[in-house]
Amino acid sequence: MHRQEPCPARSARAAQRRSLAKRLAGTLTAGIALTGLLALTACTPSPPSPLPDPRSTGIGYEDLRFRHILVIEVDTLRADHLSAYGYGRETLPKTMQRPWLVVEGYTAASSWTVPSTSSVMTGLDVHHHGLWDVQDQGPVDPLTAPTMGSVFTAAGFSTGLYSGNAFLTPLTNMGDGFQEKVLEPLPGGGAELATLSPHILNWLDSVAVNGAGSSDFLVFTQPMDAHQPIQPDLQDRGTWSRGDLLFDPDATRQDQAAQIADAWATGTPEQRSQLTTDVRDVYDETLLGLDRSIDVLLAELQTLGVLDTTLVVLTADHGETIFEDDSYTHGNTLRRELVHVPLLLLAPGLTEGPVDCLSSQTDLLPTLLRFAGEPPLEGVDGRAIQDSCRASTRSVLLANDNIAWLDAATSTETLSWACSPTGTAAYGFDVATDPAALNPVAAADLKDGEMLIEQLAALAAEITAGRPTFTCASPI
């Protein structure tokens, strides 16, 4: 990859961004005001350059090989709402009966779909792939790096992309290279796994089983089961939620979001507490339907005779805040509820149970290539977790031309910088003792504060390079 000079901002496109920002402003809350969503003037990404990041031993399994791969990236799925990560409710009871290897410490590159899934697809950090922009009309600036689909197709795999999220295709080119593409967005929301699975199974039966294509396959699906609007299956309603909810679970995404926002804005402290409980309960109930869909999909793979040779990956693009910061949303901060996402691996030869491996979404593509026995990609930020885990992870949320959140974290601590034209604010948290991030501490009081400062300083220097309007000076 080579460096290209950033092109000038286009005035019409900037106007589109401002229009979008006005529409979104009511749904975003953060420590500093947002006037836009994830738009910078650079038209091409900068190439990766090494940041200080000492690594530890990986999870092993260097010699395991799988030429059948299924990635289920559930939109808006919080790791801390799964029993595999210590949640008290059995939200995926059937799914969790299988012998998953549970990766502790997997971190989203950002807190909404476009930048985070672009990192999954390319192995690049957000500021390197450059796909963080949403416009009112037309596609975003395209990715210039090879995508998961193009890499695996070139390696001789049959490749299929099945998405309930329109951002994967055609609004972006994240799906480039996949031979089969099925987009099933639904009015007011997006397709759930139960809608996408028949497409997946029909294609696998034709291509991988009956010889219409390569018997090696990679399937990537992004279902919207956990995304707003949260609408549990009828049989699951009342499992945890009460009957007289403060919002309508059958409403469209926009109407449900408005109902919840209005109930929060006008509610008493007691009503807000109840609303938080209601949203959490209904969110958890939606996962019961997802659980059945995963179980059915895996059972059908068994019927096709491919499950026992398939690496199944269950993960998410980002999480969701449920009023931990007075909002029910994502893409507004880098709170732990948004960037701590699940990574579960299921395949013959993998040992059931948790494994500590601090890692990033940029590591998923290199990890899949290693499992497939393919050579590693050059010039990417990610590395295969079979070989090494990270000492820390980085997440980035960019807003308009001069506002951003930068986050660096270890398994027990996190340090965030909120960058704006008026300066850079720093927030440190001890995740081990303060998982809700309610008690900020000075970076100097963090055990790994010096390393985290070094990480953020290097990251800020990369992002601000070539962007004269962007300010992110070290507050230390």
Task: Describe the protein in words.
The protein is of the alpha/beta class and 476 residues long. It folds into two domains: 31-52 and 396-464, no CATH class; 55-390, Alkaline Phosphatase, subunit A (3-Layer(aba) Sandwich). It contains ten helices and 16 strands. The strands form four sheets. An eight-stranded mixed β-sheet has the order 5-4-6-2-7-10-3-11, sandwiched between helices. β14 (403-409) and β15 (413-420) form a beta hairpin. α5 (193-209) packs parallel to α7 (269-304). The radius of gyration is 21 Å and the shape is globular. Residues 1-48 and 134-139 have low confidence and may be disordered.
Helix-strand layout with pairing:
Blueprint: H1 11-24, E1 55-57, E2 68-74, E3 101-107, H2 113-122, H3 126-129, H4 148-154, E4 158-163, E5 180-183, H5 193-209, E6 217-222, H6 253-266, H7 269-304, E7 310-316, E8 321-322, E9 328-329, H8 336-339, E10 343-346, E11 353-360, H9 364-372, E12 388-390, E13 393-399, E14 403-409, E15 413-420, E16 423-430, H10 449-464
Parallel strand pairs: 2-6, 2-7, 3-11, 4-5, 4-6
Antiparallel strand pairs: 1-12, 3-10, 7-10, 8-9, 13-14, 14-15, 15-16
Helix pairs in contact: 5-7
